[in-house]
Fold:
Amino acid sequence: MLRLHMFCAALLAASSVAAAADPAPEIQRAPATPQAVGALHTLRTIPEACARLEGRFTGDAAKPYAFAAVPTSPRCQARAKLGDAAALKASAATGWILNDVLRVPSAACTTQQAVVRIWRKPAAGAAPKMDAQGRARVYLKDGLDAAEAGKLGAIPQYAVAMTVEGKRCN
Structure:
């Protein structure tokens, strides 16, 4: 009996350490409704990056979930970059903020869910200087000159990582 209590205490301690290592996302949301195999669904839209994240369960055991970022409109002017979290090495240690965690359960396999983590890295841009009237003004010519000189400021970035968690189904 003492061994069982010791085991439960160790398991509880290990789970609390694992939960503490993963930062809490800025956006808290419940898991999505279970999705059927082959049903294309939108996970989230990121207007700053002019992108929509969409996915679908494939039914294939080797690759159970297909995931893609698609443009929202050809005329949209992106104000942020969107990239792969693994390639950008997105983590709290490198200055990224965990923005959102999306969990999508499979309707056909209740033990499996797709988990999409969205990281955000804000731009460290300085506020515009105040003019003689105390107003911050931005002039097109100044922006064009800075772009021509290669001195544009950083823009915000988003990084996306997708994993499938849970037990595999046949």
Residues 27 and 72 are 22 Å apart (CA to CA).
